[in-house]
Specification:
Number of helices: 10
Strand order of the largest sheet: 1-8-2-3-7-4-6-5-9-10-11
Largest sheet: 11 strands, mixed
Structural class: alpha/beta
Strand content: 15-25%
CATH topology of the largest domain: DHBP synthase
CATH class of the largest domain: Alpha Beta
Order of helices and strands: EHEEHEHEHEHEHEEEHEEHEEHEHE
Radius of gyration: 20 Å
Helix content: 25-40%
CATH architecture of the largest domain: Alpha-Beta Complex
Number of strands: 16
Distance between the termini: 47 Å
Number of domains: 2
Bound molecules: adenosine monophosphate, magnesium ion
Length: 350
């Protein structure tokens, strides 16, 4: 299969191209598209065959439920019922935006989407291309990240092509995504609500709107661990590059010194080493034969989040066998970055 690319302007996408892509969705095809977080792999949420093909194309296990995307919060009752007041408050505050709400599912929502759960995850994305496609197709669209299962999420159309080229009918190419990490997933079916995945909307921003929110941070994965967490699909090892990734936690100077020593040793033993750090830490790794990918300023979590997945993919592409990264602390988007790095890591060094 040849994967068609529709190149569109991210702010004002061509209506004719959106209509073409929407037609593909309505005829059961798979179309990847940019959202503000990462690229999604879209299928008509009412088309069982198309939804099944999403799992096949990604190599995603059936127990990992999909997020349903809507053009507008008004359409929520198409997929969810018993919408609690919290949901309305949050929708008003953050939609369109990188917040996914888990709600009791509406009758008729396909079991394939929810992995047989009585709940459905839903959001309205803040991206003109995503919204344009949703409006033009007139149906809710399921869209997990458009990567092979377990791999790093795509933040450009090129990333999608690398993972899914030849396996899906089309890609709307709207350039790089803005946030760079996935949406925040919040379970509203329990009291108080549970943060299942930190993401583009911060825990603090949620708490400001609805008060108490419970978050149980990701613990470092055990060797070879692949057990499902509270939320199906939130596997401990996920979002991972091909190379092994070691994460250095604790006090900044000490962690960076330790990273430098580890890098030196690994280089000496002939391993191809990559380092993923903030711009300010570059000096620690000078004169070593390694590949350094800068995440931008350590002070700017928004920049770091945006560059994180592109960095992991770039290091993989350069044939690096071992990636050394420093743990990110702090609030806001820092929580999402820490969560993704922890899931990508095979070792956390305290
Ligand atoms: P992705 O679309 O690849 O970013 O992954 C979507 C994630 O949303 C899944 O891995 C689940 O953890 C979460 N999710 C989707 N549906 C549900 C649900 N009904 N209940 C809890 N979590 C969900
Ligand atoms: Mg994913």
């Amino acid at each position: 299969m040849q994967t068609k690319i529709w190149r569109v302007d991210p702010q004002t996408p061509d209506e004719t191209l959106l209509a073409e892509a929407a037609q593909a969705i309505l005829s059961g095809q798979l179309v990847a598209f940019p959202t503000e977080t990462v690229y999604g792999l879209g299928a008509n949420a009412f088309d069982r065959q198309a939804v099944r093909r999403v799992f096949l194309a990604k190599g995603r296990p059936a127990q990992d439920p999909l997020i349903v995307h809507l053009a507008d919060a008004e359409l929520l009752s198409q997929v969810a019922r018993e919408i609690p007041p919290f949901a309305e408050t949050l929708a008003r505050a953050f939609w369109p935006g990188p917040l996914t709400l888990v709600l009791p599912k509406q009758e008729g929502v396909l079991d394939e989407i929810t992995a047989g759960l009585p709940t459905v995850a839903v959001r309205v994305p803040a991206h003109a291309v995503a919204l344009g496609l949703l409006r033009a197709s007139g149906v809710p669209i399921v869209a997990p990240s458009a990567n092979r299962f377990g791999h790093v999420s795509p933040t450009t159309a090129q990333h999608v092509l690398e993972d899914l080229g030849g396996l899906i009918e089309g890609i709307l190419d709207g350039g790089s995504t803005h946030v760079g990490v996935e949406s925040t997933v919040l379970d509203l079916t329990c009291t108080p609500p549970h943060l299942l995945r930190p993401g583009g909307v911060s825990l603090e921003a949620l708490q400001e709107q609805i008060g108490e929110v419970v978050y149980l941070p990701q613990k470092p994965p055990e060797e070879g661990e692949l057990t499902a967490q509270r939320s199906p699909g939130l596997l401990a090892k996920h979002y991972a590059p091909q190379a092994e990734l070691w994460l250095f936690a604790g006090q900044r100077e000490r962690a960076l010194q330790n990273m430098r020593q580890t890098a030196e040793q690994a280089c000496r033993s002939g391993r191809r080493v990559g380092v993923l750090v903030g711009e300010e830490a570059r000096g620690f790794f000078s004169e070593l034969p390694l590949v350094l990918y800068s995440l931008g300023s350590e002070q700017r979590y928004d920049e770091m989040a945006k560059r994180l997945y592109a960095g992991l993919r770039a290091l993989d592409r350069q044939g690096v066998e071992l990636i050394l990264a420093r743990e990110v602390t702090g609030e806001g988007l820092g929580l999402a970055i820490r969560d993704r790095l922890r899931r990508a890591a095979s070792r956390v060094i305290e």
